[in-house]
């Protein structure tokens, strides 16, 4: 059962639990922090505990102190063996070394303290094991295993299969999972849950699990993710320590100009830097989040040009920079030497970054939790207020920021999404399990289902993965040769096969796919950003695409470098299905929907000053921001009145525009602030339905606040018929057909195939190039498409529909439409888009849903080519 | 109705095969049997499926034109080296099947076809090391430059795996396998698309001439004036305007 920790313990009470020497050391701290007050006793008593608390609130020490105390007690009694007692897992390698240092020092201090008190205590060892750990380090770790092992999810999975080292894990009593908020929403986390269950099989007694999380919601689900289920399908016990809101926080929404809607972008940008300059000057150390890497580079460039601070007090930090550079920026931050650091998202997590007194967010952080996490990086000490300023440069961002801030003050958070039944991760673990021993399938099923992510796994799915791994999907006469594992379907057992398997497993483990970013430069050599290799393949010279919010014309590519020319004001000519931006969370989207409702009522009923005051007081907007938001709604309201539309787009009404653009294209624009994951699903389903109705390719544009379906000319007369074509009942089926031949699915298929060890990233000690992996994936996909229920392909569709998109929520939205809780309102055709549609219209196409009738598709392409060639011929002869 | 590329040379249905009507010959190229096993050796597990597909395509071609002879224009098998188990088994199966149907079978050697002679000999199929001349046709694989040949009118080759990329009105790109039709000196030249379903093809209208695979196409021909003829199973045959007119509207090449 999941329960909440309700009793807080004083410092004295906590100290009493600890070994006297450790207590002596611990009493040096002025006081125990809130997570320590609630958590230490439970950890001392060996319970599973989830601690959710902001960065810097002492939760790591809360987790470790009773463990250290126990280990010292054992050391004193000479009970400490050469074995691992505590495993600490974190997704960040950089965090691992920090934790190592932060443990090493107290352990040494306690050791010295004991010595000074004349007590003879054996050493408590701690060591880090990651992919970087050398062969000799690993060998010495085997001779003298650390009592506390610091590792990553991937390395944990490897040691579980290391014949000798895994013997040293039989003594594990505690497992600490750090940054669980980051892990639980990814396949890395899914992977870890299975490793923990396998570790559980290995150890003699059940170990206690301690999860450390930043602000996240709902805690009950995260706790179940941490502790899993017992063999009877009951969630294991877990005590939740909720100190998420202990740190005072101050948030403000700011806008550089008084009327964002009518101010030219260049002026807005100038004013933004002026505002940023002031904020940086008025604070000791400022951390700026920009969401994208290109944004980070741009901001740093301008700040240094403006000479806001000394050159060495300003730096960029993002994942494309080398580890040394990042490390040096982090160190200088910690030492208080930086006035301003600008990052994409890279400093959101992990390592202690010292005394920051202001966090600035440019644009929208897209989720309440992320907003709190980022702003929480400031105000180092627990009693210091975290201070954040959110700067909106586009009205939709301002609206998001305002609603986010108000929700945060109300203590509302968006729900985390945890992937389930991932068959690719399962395949990888089944190979690992096969390496360990011969397994009855039923027994493996019992172990797997203890993971939260697989508690509902159908037995048939497990069998299909085993069939795939053992090569049963190949033609009968050759399958014996190619199977990775051996599987006897009749007897219901599986095990290892082949001498190479262990090497393949340990060199291909993990869930993060290889990516090769194609670096994009202007023709005169300036770095612009990066695109995916798959996207480059789709580009022809002359194509215009959007990168970092700006249009560029593709000129040529040399290897993994693409050269472009800035094409200010040009419209993209190719759909770009990738987005550098994180998707808006559905919960925040819904809150924006009700905000829209409130605002339209206010705009209709109250004067401007009253509305602006409300935005300032309730939504923490500055005057500029409040003004701009007011103007935005006012403009939309007038537009709709002009067209005699009585409905307003909000959380119940999905307004559907029919906009004919200057190019003669028909754009069906849906206004629904469901976030990109839900809108992605809805848009493609409607596009597919439209494609079927008209027999033509349909382009989609997907955004957080809505989506657009584009037709080459006005072809759809009856929008109502389109709205009826998709329902909660048929959404999933339609969607699967709609995405079948997209680049997105091919790309995800490659990822799933590498995770499933179908395409190896490393074979016989050789790296397989990504381009090779890509080519192979293409080939493979064509082949496996014809095999019914092939698990790797099934997983690809699951991942696209459930993880990348959010088909479940999309279904429930449509169900609500069917129940009358939401409704569509279709507008008459018009040759202007509404103000709310501007962002979407300017964004450029996201993807195309292709005709599935090959003959018609080819015929149409043929006609088009002829038309073009003929018109070119006419032009030439004139 | 059959689609005629040049006089008495027809595309077989909407499949990547050619029928030389005056000689009763069915031509196919680039089967790449054993491709999956080659991938397997690189650590990629591919369920077997291409051979049955290849065989099925051959079957419908045979039913369509009812030829006397079948000539494979090279790359029957995929591996450069010693044939793998799969290659042996499938290549043997294919030959046996064709011969049992009473067909005369010839293979013009491709760059992947080392070691295949013994199989061909054992089954009594013809093997042609560099080229095969039948009537007015010169048949080659296409990986080597050619000497002048007298008395032929049409040169037919494979090797290039030609395809073209087409864009719809939204800029979405898609690739289609095609034949290429043009001139080599005063001979008509026809390039066959690969029969192997795993070979998706190289996009002729997006590759600079220098990057084409075949030295024949790189040197003596004006590829811009070649016409692609797209074949798509179940979707028909389409003759497109010249490659030069299908190049992307580019400022740079």
- The CATH C-level name of chain B is Alpha Beta
Q: Per CATH, which architecture of chain B?
A: 4-Layer Sandwich
CATH homologous superfamily designation of the domain at 247-413 and 576-651 in chain A: P-loop containing nucleotide triphosphate hydrolases
Strand content of chain A: 15-25%
Strand order of the largest sheet of chain A: 1-8-2-7-6-3-5-4
Return the structural class of chain B: alpha/beta
Described by strand count, sense and barrel closure, the largest sheet of chain B is: 9 strands, mixed
Approximately how much helix is present in the residues of chain A? 40-55%
Cα-based radius of gyration of chain B, to the nearest Å: 18 Å
Radius of gyration of chain A: 29 Å
Proportion of strand residues of chain B: 25-35%
Please identify, by name, the CATH architecture of the domain at 247-413 and 576-651 in chain A: 3-Layer(aba) Sandwich
Descriptive report:
The complex is a heterodimer of chains A (878) and B (253). With 878 residues, chain A is of the alpha/beta class. Among the domains of chain A are: 2-242, Rossmann fold, CATH 3.40.50; 247-413 and 576-651, P-loop containing nucleotide triphosphate hydrolases (Rossmann fold); 517-566, no CATH class. Chain A has 33 helices and 30 strands. In chain A, the strands form 6 sheets. In chain A, strands 1-8-2-7-6-3-5-4 form an 8-stranded parallel sheet, with helices on both faces. Chain A has a 6-stranded parallel sheet with strand order 9-14-13-10-12-11, with helices on both faces. In chain A, strands 29-23-24-26-25-30 form a 6-stranded mixed sheet. In chain A, helix 7 runs parallel beside helix 9 (187-202). Chain B has a single domain, classed as Purple Acid Phosphatase, chain A, domain 2, CATH 3.60.21. Chain B contains 6 helices and 16 strands. The mean pLDDT of chain B is 88. Classes of the chains: A alpha/beta (878), B alpha/beta (253). Chains A and B meet through strand 21, strand 27, helix 29 and helix 33 of A and helix 1, helix 3, strand 11 and strand 12 of B.
């Amino acid at each position: 059962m999941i329960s909440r920790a309700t009793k807080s313990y004083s410092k004295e009470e906590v100290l009493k639990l600890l070994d006297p020497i450790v207590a002596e050391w611990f009493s040096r701290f002025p006081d125990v922090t809130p997570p320590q007050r609630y958590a230490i006793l439970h950890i001392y008593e060996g319970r599973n505990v989830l601690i959710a608390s902001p960065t810097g609130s002492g939760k790591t020490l809360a987790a470790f102190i009773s463990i250290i105390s126990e280990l010292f007690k054992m050391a004193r009694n000479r009970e400490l063996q050469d074995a691992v007692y505590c495993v600490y897992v974190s997704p960040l390698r950089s965090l691992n070394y920090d934790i190592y240092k932060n443990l090493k020092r107290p352990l040494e201090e306690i050791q010295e303290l004991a010595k000074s008190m004349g007590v003879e205590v054996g050493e408590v060892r701690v060591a880090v094991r990651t992919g970087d750990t050398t062969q000799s380090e690993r060998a010495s770790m085997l001779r003298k295993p650390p009592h506390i092992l610091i590792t990553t999810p991937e390395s944990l999975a490897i040691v579980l299969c290391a014949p000798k080292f895994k013997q040293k894990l039989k003594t594990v009593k505690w497992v600490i999972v750090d940054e669980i908020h980051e892990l639980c929403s990814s396949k890395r986390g899914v992977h870890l849950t299975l490793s923990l269950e396998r570790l559980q099989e290995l150890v003699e007694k059940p170990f206690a699990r301690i999860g450390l999380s930043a602000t996240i919601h709902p805690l009950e689900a995260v706790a179940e993710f941490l502790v899993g289920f017992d063999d009877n399908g009951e969630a294991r016990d877990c005590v939740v320590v909720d100190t998420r809101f202990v740190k005072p926080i101050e948030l403000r929404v700011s806008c550089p100009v008084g009327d964002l809607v009518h101010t030219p972008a260049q002026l807005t940008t100038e004013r933004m830097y002026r505002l940023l300059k002031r904020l940086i000057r008025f604070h000791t150390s400022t951390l700026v989040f920009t969401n994208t890497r290109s944004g980070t580079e741009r901001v740093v460039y301008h700040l240094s040009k403006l000479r806001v601070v000394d050159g060495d007090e300003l730096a960029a930090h993002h994942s494309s920079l080398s580890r040394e550079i990042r490390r040096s920026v982090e160190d200088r931050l910690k030492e208080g030497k930086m006035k301003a650091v600008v990052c994409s998202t890279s400093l959101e997590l992990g390592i202690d970054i010292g005394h920051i007194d202001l966090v600035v967010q440019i644009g929208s952080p897209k989720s309440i939790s992320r907003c709190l996490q980022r702003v929480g990086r400031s105000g180092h000490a627990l009693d210091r207020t975290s201070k954040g300023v959110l700067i909106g440069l586009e009205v939709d961002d301002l609206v998001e920021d305002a609603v986010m801030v108000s929700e945060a003050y109300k203590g509302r958070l968006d729900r985390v999404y945890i992937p389930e039944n991932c068959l690719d991760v399962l395949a990888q673990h089944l190979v690992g399990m096969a390496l360990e021993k011969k397994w009855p399938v039923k027994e493996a099923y019992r172990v797997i289902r203890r993971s939260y992510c697989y508690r509902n796994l159908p037995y048939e799915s497990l069998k299909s993965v085993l069939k795939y791994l053992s090569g049963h999907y190949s033609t009968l006469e050759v399958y014996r040769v190619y199977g990775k594992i051996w599987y006897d379907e009749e007897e219901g057992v599986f095990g290892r096969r082949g001498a190479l398997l262990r090497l393949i497993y340990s060199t291909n483990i993990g869930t993060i796919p290889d990516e090769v970013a194609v670096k994009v430069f202007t023709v005169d050599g300036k770095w612009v950003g990066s695109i995916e290799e798959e996207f480059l393949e789709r580009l022809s010279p002359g194509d215009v695409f959007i990168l970092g919010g700006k249009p560029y014309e593709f000129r040529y590519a040399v290897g993994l470098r693409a050269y472009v020319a800035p094409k200010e004001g040009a419209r993209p000519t190719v759909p770009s299905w990738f987005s550098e931006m994180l998707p808006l969370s559905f919960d925040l989207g819904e809150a924006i929907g009700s905000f829209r409702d409130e605002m339209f009522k206010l705009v209709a009923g109250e004067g401007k000053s009253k509305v602006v005051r409300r935005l300032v007081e309730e939504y923490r907007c500055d005057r500029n921001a409040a003004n701009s938001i007011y103007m935005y709604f006012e403009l939309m309201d007038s537009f709709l009145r002009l067209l005699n539309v009585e409905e307003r787009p909000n959380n119940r009404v999905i307004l559907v525009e029919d906009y004919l653009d200057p190019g003669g294209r028909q754009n069906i624009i849906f206004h629904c602030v469901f976030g990109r994951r839900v809108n992605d699903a809805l848009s493609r389903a409607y596009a597919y339905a439209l494609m079927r109705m008209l027999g033509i390719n349909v382009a989609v544009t997907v955004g957080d606040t809505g989506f657009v379906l584009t037709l080459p000319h006005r072809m759809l007369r009856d929008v109502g018929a389109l709205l009826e074509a998709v329902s909660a009942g048929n959404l999933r089926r339609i969607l699967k057909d709609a995405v079948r031949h997209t680049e997105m699915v091919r790309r995800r298929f490659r990822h799933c195939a590498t995770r499933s060890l179908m395409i190896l990233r490393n074979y016989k000690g050789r790296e397989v190039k990504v381009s090779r992996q890509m080519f192979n994936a293409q080939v493979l996909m064509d082949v496996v498409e014809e095999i019914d229920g092939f698990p790797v392909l099934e997983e690809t569709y699951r991942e696209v529909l459930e993880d990348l998109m959010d088909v479940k929520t999309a279904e429930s939205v449509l169900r609500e439409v069917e129940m009358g809780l939401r409704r569509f309102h279709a507008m008459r055709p018009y040759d202007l888009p509404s103000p709310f549609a501007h962002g979407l219209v300017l964004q450029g196409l996201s993807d195309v849903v292709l005709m599935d009738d090959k003959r018609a598709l080819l015929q149409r392409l043929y006609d088009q080519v002829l038309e073009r060639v003929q018109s070119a011929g006419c032009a030439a002869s004139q | 109705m059959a689609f005629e590329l040049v006089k008495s040379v027809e595309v077989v249905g909407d499949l990547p095969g050619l029928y030389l009507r005056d000689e009763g010959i069915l031509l196919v190229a680039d089967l790449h049997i054993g491709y999956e096993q080659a991938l397997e050796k690189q650590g990629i597990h591919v369920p077997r499926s291409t051979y049955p597909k290849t065989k099925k395509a051959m079957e419908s071609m045979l039913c369509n034109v009812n030829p006397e002879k079948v000539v494979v224009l090279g790359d029957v098998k995929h591996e450069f080296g010693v044939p793998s188990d799969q290659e042996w088994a499938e290549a043997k199966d294919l030959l046996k099947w064709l011969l049992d149907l009473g067909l005369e079978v010839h293979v013009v050697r491709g760059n992947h076809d080392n070691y295949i002679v013994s199989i061909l000999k054992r089954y009594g199929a013809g093997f042609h090391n560099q080229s095969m001349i039948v009537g007015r046709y010169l048949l080659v694989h296409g990986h080597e430059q050619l000497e002048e040949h007298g008395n032929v009118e049409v040169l037919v080759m494979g090797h290039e795996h030609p395809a073209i990329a087409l864009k719809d009105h939204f800029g979405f790109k898609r690739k289609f396998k095609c034949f290429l039709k043009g001139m080599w000196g005063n001979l008509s030249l026809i390039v066959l698309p690969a029969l192997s379903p795993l070979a998706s093809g190289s996009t002729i209208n997006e590759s600079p001439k220098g990057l084409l695979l075949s030295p024949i196409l790189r040197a003596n021909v004006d590829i811009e004036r070649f016409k692609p003829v797209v074949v798509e199973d179940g979707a028909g045959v389409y003759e497109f305007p010249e490659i030069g007119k299908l190049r992307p509207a580019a400022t740079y090449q």
